[in-house]
């Protein structure tokens, strides 16, 4: 039985590696251009913020349900649902002809991000044992980065061939993305299965246990607050990064492509090393140790005297982003195996709802205060509000010690 479970873990991990690698390339094609595409469709930066805020709010409940299904039904069913929504997002972007379709496209992309990514992380965490888990995430992220490294440059050539940064130039990227995701998802769903059978639990019982788990452990409440505040760092500023690069710094499609390439190279070089470091000194320490690179990259981005500096900024940003392996490991290890899906569901429902105004707030700051003020505000929120919350999070590297400290719900 142990050998069979070990074999299934390896098969799952390899299938997830392949899916994440292929998805890294195909999702990487339109990544730099999604928000530019919406603006090129005739909408202002404030309109972009409104579209993203509405889509974020609409994505909260379905994202939460997808994650809850991972605990009350099966990991694989939840994963299949999330991957289907990911493909639907690409299709809707390709056929979008009005604001409603754009809102739906962004909504499904967010559901897939918070659903597919979370469920895939749950499956990865299930497939790799504790002392190698951060390294396992690091390898998965590295392979995805290798595949996606050339995606921005390939995308730049596609955009250039079809007319440059315009609706007509960007639209074909979504069709290629759709075809690639369909292929990658089919492979994953053939080979991935649940590592072990979950205890049967109803949706209502799972919801009650989620609430009780968070109530009993104060650091879980703080983590949810950390994710809410993350919206006022990343959801508020990221939609406007490439618009800023083009409109303020004079970047063209090739500069955007090389920015993406530099980001991916930085992440690829750093991911396994940071994963190993997280397995050695701890997840929390690693996240905090690498954090200053985010602020350095932002400073270079804002003060860049010419577009070439944007490439350097994104290389440093990529090295910082490699710490996501430690972050992903930590968030999964904050709860026991059987609670991972419902923990993701609870976090997603609360944090997405609370952060839904962030893109609109970002659009208002960008348009009516100044573009620079938006990115500075995001950095200050991260530095003075989120970093202290990360510091207060218990370390999970010693799994037994951490789980002995965790208080579990007792609901009949």
Output the keywords.
mainly alpha; about 80% helix; about 400 residues; Growth Hormone, Chain: A
List the helices and strands and how they pair.
Layout: H1 2-31, H2 34-40, H3 45-72, H4 75-95, H5 99-127, H6 133-149, H7 151-161, H8 167-191, H9 203-216, H10 218-237, H11 241-247, H12 253-281, H13 283-290, H14 292-303, H15 308-321, H16 324-333, H17 340-355, H18 358-368, H19 371-391, H20 399-405
Question: What's the overall average pLDDT, rounded?
Answer: 88
Tell me the number of strands: 0
Please provide the ordered H/E string of secondary-structure elements.
HHHHHHHHHHHHHHHHHHHH
Which band does the percent of strand residues land in? under 5%
Low-confidence stretches: none
Helix content: over 70%
Radius of gyration: 20 Å
CATH H-level homologous superfamily name: MFS general substrate transporter like domains
So how many helices?
Answer: 20
CATH architecture: Up-down Bundle
CATH topology: Growth Hormone, Chain: A
Number of domains: 1
| CATH classification, class level | Mainly Alpha
Q: Which word captures the global form?
A: globular
Distance between the termini: 30 Å
Structural class: mainly alpha
Report the sheet with the most strands, covering strand number, pairing sense and barrel closure. none
């Amino acid at each position: 039985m142990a050998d069979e479970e070990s074999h299934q873990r390896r098969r799952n991990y390899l299938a997830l590696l392949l899916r994440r690698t292929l998805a890294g390339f195909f999702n990487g094609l339109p990544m730099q251009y999604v928000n530019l595409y919406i603006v090129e469709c005739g909408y202002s930066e404030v309109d972009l913020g409104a579209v993203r805020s509405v889509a974020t709010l609409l994505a909260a409940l379905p994202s939460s349900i997808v994650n809850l299904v991972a605990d009350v039904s099966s990991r694989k069913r939840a994963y299949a649902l999330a991957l289907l929504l990911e493909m639907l997002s690409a299709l809707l972007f390709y056929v979008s002809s009005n604001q409603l379709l754009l809102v739906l496209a962004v909504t499904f992309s967010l559901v897939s991000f918070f659903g597919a990514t979370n469920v895939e992380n749950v499956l990865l965490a299930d497939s790799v044992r504790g002392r190698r888990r951060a390294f396992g995430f690091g390898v998965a992220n590295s392979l995805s980065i290798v595949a996606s490294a050339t995606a921005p440059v390939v995308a730049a050539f596609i955009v250039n061939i079809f007319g440059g940064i315009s609706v007509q130039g960007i639209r074909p990227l979504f069709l290629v993305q759709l075809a690639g995701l369909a292929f990658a998802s089919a492979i994953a769903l053939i080979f991935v299965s649940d590592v072990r059978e979950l205890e049967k639990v109803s949706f209502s019982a799972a919801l009650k246990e989620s609430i009780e788990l968070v109530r009993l452990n104060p650091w879980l409440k703080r983590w949810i607050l950390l994710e809410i505040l993350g919206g006022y760092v990343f959801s508020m500023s990221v939609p406007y990064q490439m618009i800023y690069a083009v409109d303020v710094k004079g970047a063209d499609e090739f500069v955007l492509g090389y920015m993406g390439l530099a980001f991916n190279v930085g992440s690829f070089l750093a991911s396994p090393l940071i994963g190993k470091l997280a397995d050695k000194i701890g997840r929390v320490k690693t996240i905090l140790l690498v954090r200053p690179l985010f602020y350095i990259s932002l400073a270079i981005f804002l003060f860049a005297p010419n577009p070439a500096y944007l490439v350097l900024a994104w290389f440093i940003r990529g090295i910082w982003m490699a710490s996501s392996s430690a972050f992903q490991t930590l968030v999964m290890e904050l709860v026991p195996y059987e609670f991972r899906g419902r923990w993701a569901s609870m976090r997603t429902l609360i944090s997405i709802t609370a952060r839904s105004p962030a893109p609109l707030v970002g659009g208002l700051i960008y348009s009516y205060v100044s573009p620079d003020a938006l990115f500075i505000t995001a950095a200050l929120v991260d530095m003075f509000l989120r970093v202290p919350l990360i510091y207060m999070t218990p370390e999970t590297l010693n799994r037994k010690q951490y789980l002995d400290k965790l208080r579990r719900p007792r609901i009949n």
